[in-house]
Amino acid sequence: MSRRAANASDYRELAKARLPHFLFEYLDGGSYDEVTLKRNLTDLRSVVLKQQVLRDVSDIDLKTTLFSKEWAMPVGLGPVGLAGLYARRGEVQAARAAANARIPFALSTVSACSLGEVAASGHVPWYQLYFVKDRGFVAQMIETAREASCGALVLTVDLAVPGSRYRDARAAGVGPRRTLQLLARPRWLWDVGLLGKPHSLGNLEPIVGKKAPLSDFQTWIQSNFDPSVNWKDVEWVRGQWKGPLVIKGILDPDDAREAAKSGADAIVVSNHGGRQLDGVLSTASALGPIADAIGGRLPILVDGGVRSGLDVVRMLALGADFVLLGRAWAYALAAGGEQGVAHVLKLIEAEMRVAMALTGCTRVNEVDRSLLA
User: Catalytic positions, please?
Assistant: First the structure.
């Protein structure tokens, strides 16, 4: 499967052909009219880099350090909900691919495979945390992450309420409509639907049971996620968790400053992949002002619209220290499982090397705003 794909966009088409319609639309879609979803892509593509020639670029090193650990490149797999339904036990497969590539993998709260299952595979992830109304359960999830020796806790703060996702509503269906969507994808139905059981929200089983509320996932989030969360709750998490704490969902420089005050060790500039408030800034547009506000005080991670190694270099030039992939790795997982994820990471590494060579850079820390044309 991976041999048919030349880039992440190819994997998107392969994923569309393999996944049941409702699952692909959940993965691919954004909120409202998807203006921000499109901006994430177009604004990043519009970033112009300086081509610089006749530098010695024979020895390019992509390695970087984050949270006192060296990574093979400044790229990680960001949290993607329900990834375990895109391929059989998908989060475990993605974690293996990330570990083999020597990059981090962040497991979503709303994953199909539990943190315990992923950690038992020998590839301990970062753990993404959402606030649900039951604070005792939140404390329990933090403790589970501690016991699993997770490398970081990624507290996602931009989903107090779910965005209005029109594509999900159009694609959803129960009864005969859902059955027809499943029967139209027999390979997925056999590999994931039948052999990939159990189907549940593994991390949330203690509060939702062993059957995932997939038929009305957004309604479940609306009922159980906590809209009262504020910066005092971040401080509470900081008191519960002694490892690296990452605040994900920052678009405003003032919020970035608050995150630094709250004791966070890093932030992720993110608009949830265009899945929450539509019409807000793309992450490429938001990144520069945030870097101006807190650059040097704590690491800045970013996601949103990244589909290539060139996009990674663009984000680094705009002020990011580290870049998280979302849909890029999820498409590859859906199309080719662990091998698909491994292949897309090799593509991104190769594309980074080309982009750095043609901008005259041999080390990651040389990629900065001086490269912006």
Answer: 272
